[in-house]
Design goal:
- The structure is a single chain.
- By secondary structure, this protein is mainly α.
- The protein folds into two domains: 221 residues, P-loop containing nucleotide triphosphate hydrolases (Rossmann fold); 59 residues, Histone, subunit A.
- Helix content is 50%, strand content 6%.
- It has 13 helices and five strands.
- The strands form two sheets. It has a three-stranded parallel sheet with strand order 2-1-3, sandwiched between helices. A two-stranded parallel ribbon has the order 4-5.
- The longest helix has 24 residues.
- The relative contact order is 0.16.
- The C terminus is likely disordered.
Length: 315
């Protein structure tokens, strides 16, 4: 179950899991972290209706978790759920995680933190040098990565240096995805204006619910403001409030704007996802629920698709 932030995918996935004896597998890159609750819109344990949820709260905030690591962990969880005779229901907004699981990633070397630290120091001394270095080692990959996208530049260089081959060669070597499973990819596609209205309200409620205090508690646990989850929308603005860089009203405004932009980027990504079945609306709308339930029933061979439900047109 994919969808932009605020579209109601978690709630719809939960109803589908209840209906079809399933278990939820998180597919959100932030909900894997402990302590980050309000800003990631995690369903509280009491609202999960006793449906098992997996890959939520499995990492400390200072731990890194790549798409490859997610794919390996999620594949293991999917196999465990299937072995119990239950239905794995993946839900989240991180499309790259889902693609990594279903289609696999190229067989590149694992992360080398010492090498990354050296590369980061080089970039600090000579801004732009990493991309220039990548252009020497792997011109094909360098052309596809913006010089300012340091995470991707660093990873590409890391691959070149550790594998002693251009990353582009490894990209073409093939990748192994999830095997032995059929998948039904459902996606929520609400109207943009309605989505933006929900996003704006959601940001307001997060700050009202104590997002700034949540950030203070995480900092008090000893985690620095530089950990990766703090880079996400909402948490970044909450940090700015604590530092005195924004007042609460400004923080909400900038969080709303950034979240709208993020939702737009998500929709752009999802449009490129092959084999999607689009549900036009929010996850809590009765018509969306009926179509989703009918699609899953047909997929599992236990029912027919809903009648007279128009297929949503991509905008």
């Amino acid at each position: 179950m994919l969808g932009p932030t605020g579209s109601g995918k978690s709630e719809l996935a939960l109803r589908l899991a209840e209906e079809f004896d399933g278990e939820i597998v998180n597919c959100d890159s932030l909900q894997v972290y402990r302590h980050f609750d309000i800003g990631t819109a995690k369903l509280p344990a009491g609202d999960r209706h006793k449906v098992p949820h997996h890959l939520i709260d499995v990492l400390n905030p200072d731990e890194l978790f790549t798409a490859g690591e997610y794919a390996r962990a999620a594949a293991a969880v999917v196999q465990e759920i299937s072995a119990r005779g239950r239905l794995p229901v993946l839900a989240g907004g991180t499309g790259f995680y889902l693609r990594a699981l279903l289609e696999g990633l190229f067989p590149g070397p694992v992360r080398d933190q010492a090498l990354r630290d050296r590369l980061a120091a080089r970039e600090v001394r000579r801004p732009g040098s990493l991309h220039r270095l990548l252009a020497r080692f792997d011109p094909e990959t360098a052309l596809k990565i913006h010089p300012h996208d340091l995470p991707k530049v660093t990873r590409a260089l890391e691959i070149c240096l550790l594998a002693r081959r251009p990353a582009s060669e490894l990209f073409r070597a093939g990748r192994a995805g999830l095997r032995g499973y059929r998948s039904l990819k459902l996606g929520l596609w609400p109207g943009r204006d309605a989505l933006y209205d929900r996003v704006n309200l959601r940001c307001e409620k997060m700050f009202e619910a104590g997002l700034v205090d949540e950030v203070r508690r995480i900092l008090a646990l000893g985690y620095p403001a530089e950990v990766k989850p703090f880079e996400s929308v909402g948490y970044k603005q909450a940090l700015q409030v604590i530092r005195g860089e924004l007042n609460p009203r400004e923080a909400v405004f900038y969080a709303q704007r950034s979240t709208r932009n993020y939702a737009k980027r998500q929709l752009t990504w999802f449009r490129k996802e092959t084999g999607m079945v689009w549900l036009k609306g929010f996850g809590d709308e009765p018509g969306v629920w009926e179509e989703a339930r009918g699609r899953v029933a047909e997929f599992l061979g236990c029912g027919k698709p809903p009648k007279n439900v128009p297929k949503p047109a991509l905008p």
